[in-house]
Design brief:
Oligomer: single chain
Number of domains: 2
Largest sheet: 3 strands, antiparallel
Radius of gyration: 39 Å
Shape: elongated
CATH topology of the largest domain: Nucleotide Exchange Factor Grpe, Chain A, domain 2
Strand order of the largest sheet: 1-4-5
Strand content: 5-15%
CATH superfamily of the largest domain: Head domain of nucleotide exchange factor GrpE
């Protein structure tokens, strides 16, 4: 804040201006005190009870009161300006942080289809099919699985995380219910995930498409 006071601002008095105003108040107060002392000495010397000439002192007192009011107003304005500057600084820091977090939002949303395609491709291959594969096919499958893991790790580094899936409590903020089915999960919990959802920071990048459990099937 010292730099702003040194350079000056149309709406904010500088430290030098406040010091100068305080100096005027001090000088005026000193003048009133000297004038009062002189009037008291004069009354003692003459021994008269004539009314002292206080018009000058009264003017000085009024001047002091005016300067003190101006100083108080200037200090109040300075404090308000400083508080507003701090608020602007904090708001700017929040906006910069938010921009850093959410700058990849559009790109991340586009990349979700890549993640979906990898997951669907891998989900079609069960253990029986894997056992029937040749070495080259197995190596290709291992590469696909590694690619999926790396993609999820990259997502995580940028604050993109999967929404809780099966067995989690249904949350309308991150889950989209497309069906209700009987299951071993507690009634109201997620019974099955049709499409994985993701969050970015505090935002829902894509809601998970889920089926909600109605509880165990009645026999």
């Amino acid at each position: 804040m010292s730099n702003e006071n040194e350079t000056g601002n149309d709406n904010m008095p500088t430290d030098a201006e406040l010091d100068a105003l305080q100096a005027q108040i001090n000088d005026a107060a000193k003048a009133v005190a000297e004038r009062t002392d002189k009037d008291a000495d004069k009354e003692d010397v003459t021994g008269e009870n004539a009314e002292p000439e206080l018009s000058g002192a009264e003017k000085q007192t009024a001047r002091i009161e005016l300067l003190e009011t101006e100083l108080a107003d200037a200090k109040d304005h300075t404090l308000r300006a400083m508080a507003e500057t701090q608020n602007i600084k904090k708001r700017s820091e929040r906006e910069v942080k938010a921009s850093s977090i959410y700058a990849v939002e559009r790109f991340a949303a586009d990349m979700l289809s890549v993640s979906d395609n990898l997951s669907r491709a891998l989900s079609t291959i069960d253990e029986k099919a894997r056992g029937a594969m040749g070495d080259n096919a197995k190596n290709l499958l291992d590469g696909l699985e590694l690619t999926e893991k790396d993609l999820i790790a990259v997502f995580s580094r940028h604050g993109i995380r999967p929404v809780p899936g099966q067995g989690s409590k249904f949350d309308p903020n991150v889950h989209q219910a497309v069906a209700q089915i009987p299951s071993d999960e507690i009634k109201g919990d997620v019974a099955q995930v049709m499409q994985t959802g993701f969050t970015l920071g505090d935002r829902t990048l894509r809601a998970a498409m889920v089926a909600v459990s109605t509880g165990p099937a009645k026999v």
